[in-house]
Specification:
With 548 residues, the protein is mostly beta strands. Helix content is 1%, strand content 74%. It has 1 helix and 29 strands. It has one helix at residues 305-308; strands spanning 5-29, 34-59, 64-88, 97-124, 128-151, 157-182, 186-208, 216-217, 223-242, 245-262, 267-285, 290-301, 312-316, 319-322, 330-343, 346-358, 361-368, 371-378, 381-395, 399-413, 422-438, 441-450, 453-455, 458-460, 463-474, 479-486, 494-499, 503-511, 515-522. The strands form 2 sheets. It has a 25-stranded antiparallel sheet that branches. Strands 13-14-18-17 form a 4-stranded mixed sheet, with no helix packed on it. The longest helix has 4 residues, at 305-308.
């Protein structure tokens, strides 16, 4: 790096092999009978990735900068999974027991490319700034999954299936932003942005119940799905300082054009929508130590591709997924009022808030013929209102303590789908973070607790976990050694209970979370690339959460 040029590069390698555990106990009932299904699953996921980054900044003058950077990633994963199924067709008759298990092996490989190009011009230093930014991302992957099914927990062949999945993700983005500070009291921000996202999933299922006949393409389970989304948006934000009062108002307008195309059946689902997103912030300085703030904002959450794909995923024959191509985005309206008090090493902030989500995108579970189906629907709304308190204390530049708590009530209304599909309840969470620094040493302990909370069809149980980290500066403060333990008590897991018209179930989901990290770093030269570039979106956004 010098006065005219900054060149930077990085390389990273990552290897991880982690386990997961899950259990589900489901009771199904009707007017005359009760059946029970117990599923036990264990798996491991091995992930390997290589990441290479390269970029440069050209300082054309004291007022203008041109930058370009990119990253390239090669990745692969190997998953092994086993599910044991125990079925009682009559829970009062142990002889009605049926057992079998299913072994899954999945191999996934692919690469990611991210490119970023931009230009920034300051007409007057820190007063008027014009910036242009272009981004491109491409993510490709190929996956092969083998599913073997055996009867009576012994390796006697019963059924085999292979899934071949070819996937692709492309993202384009271009934006123009302008910031103008007019005097000492006014500030104007405005800009336009256009993005385009294309996701492709080509799924081929091969099945057979006889080894000698080989695997044959099952057209009823195969599908080719493509999703395209184009968003054009513009925004303007204006702010003014009036003595002790600060005001900021903003408006963003966007037009979205989306197409979900099921190539297999030549079915096209179009969903175009126009949205306005107003925002407003009002701040009042009561004194040098006290401040009041009132804010309102509106934002949008868009459905993921996995939620839109209308074809059925049969990876688990007793828990299948089907997307909804007509799923609409949800809109969040949030109002918050806060009060902060700061004096020397002490700071306290309290806030009350109200959030309403209209058209909630919700995961729904239904049961038919002993098979659970996960689907997605837009509900009427959900309301979240509560109180949050944050306490910070910093003493002698050695101790830093942060405590926070949040108590709230949540209510969901799904009566547009089913008259009985609603739920409400109270919940809360608490966080603690304590840091100590002294003579090149740094220690940090953190803990998080979340109380039980309701979901639309049930409840998630409480969660608690804590981390501990130590760090020591070495080599004249140019290097450091670090040791961190995540989830020290191995307590981070999800336990839930859900129910529907004709079923009730409880389950446990556990991913490997207690890990020990040892790190060494050594800094030299001038690593001063502080500007955040590369606003692209990675394919990881297409991943969904754990099955409930």
């Amino acid at each position: 790096r010098n006065d005219k040029l900054n060149i930077f590069a990085n390389y990273g390698f990552r290897y991880a092999d982690r386990f997961s555990e899950r259990k589900t106990d489901r009771i199904t009932y009707d007017d005359t009978s009760y059946t029970e299904l117990i599923q036990d699953g264990k798996g491991s996921r091995e992930k390997i990735s290589h990441n290479l980054g390269l970029g440069t900044e050209l300082y054309l003058s004291s007022k203008s900068t041109l930058y370009v950077n990119g990253t390239y990633q090669i990745k692969e994963s190997n998953d092994e999974d086993r599910n044991d199924f125990l079925i009682f067709s009559d829970i009062n008759d142990l002889s009605s027991k049926e057992e079998y298990f299913r072994e899954n092996t999945e191999k996934d490989s692919g690469n990611n490319i991210d490119l970023n190009l931009g230009y920034e011009l300051s007409f007057i230093p820190r007063q008027k700034v014009l910036s242009v930014d272009f981004s491109y991302s491409n993510n490709s992957s190929d996956e092969v999954g083998i599913f073997n099914e055996f009867e009576n927990t012994v390796r006697t062949f019963d059924y085999i299936e292979r899934n071949d999945i070819g996937g692709g993700f492309q993202f384009y983005s271009g934006q123009l932003d302008y910031i103008d500070r007019i005097g000492e009291k006014w500030k104007l921000e405005t800009g336009v942005k256009s993005t385009q996202r294309t996701v492709r999933s080509d799924f081929r299922a091969f099945t057979n119940s006889s080894v000698s006949d080989g695997l044959l393409l099952d057209a009823s389970r195969s599908n080719d799905f493509e999703y395209k989304e184009t968003i054009m948006a513009g925004y303007a934000i204006v702010g003014r300082s009036l003595g002790k009062v600060g005001v900021q108002l903003g408006l963003r307008a966007e037009q979205a054009l989306t197409d979900s195309y099921l190539v297999t059946t030549d079915s096209l689902f179009e969903n175009d929508y126009f949205s306005l997103f107003p925002s407003g912030h009002l701040k009042y300085q009561l004194s040098q130590e006290k401040e009041l703030m009132l804010s309102y904002s509106r934002r949008i959450n868009r459905p993921r591709t996995r939620q839109l794909n209308p074809f059925t995923d049969f990876s688990n024959p007793l828990l299948i997924r089907v997307g909804n191509p007509f799923l609409l985005p949800e809109y969040v309206d949030a109002i918050e009022a806060s009060y902060s008090f700061r004096v020397k090493a002490f700071q306290l902030m309290t806030s009350v808030y109200y959030k309403q989500v209209n058209g909630v995108m919700s995961r729904l579970v239904s049961l038919e013929d002993e098979v659970s189906t996960v689907s997605y629907q837009n509900l009427n709304n959900s309301v979240n209102q509560g109180l949050e308190v944050i306490f910070t204390w910093k003493k002698w530049e050695k101790w830093n303590v942060m405590l926070s708590g949040n108590a709230y009530k949540t209510a969901s209304d799904g009566s547009n789908v089913d008259s009985d599909l609603s739920n409400e309840g109270y919940a809360g969470n608490a966080n603690a973070n304590i840091t100590y620094k002294n003579k090149g040493w740094q220690a940090q302990a953190s803990a998080r607790y979340r109380s039980p909370f309701v979901i639309l069809q049930g409840e998630i149980q409480s969660i608690f976990f804590s981390d501990l980290a130590l760090k020591k500066s070495i080599l004249k403060e140019k290097g450091s050694l670090g040791l961190r333990v995540s989830d020290m008590f191995d307590s981070r897991e999800f336990n839930f209970e859900t129910s529907g018209v004709n079923f009730a179930q409880k389950g446990r989901r556990k991913r490997e979370s207690r890990n020990v990290y040892l790190s060494f770093s050594y800094n030299f030269g001038k690593l001063e690339n502080k500007k955040k570039r590369n606003r692209g979106v990675s394919g990881s956004e297409e991943m969904d959460g754990m099955d409930l």
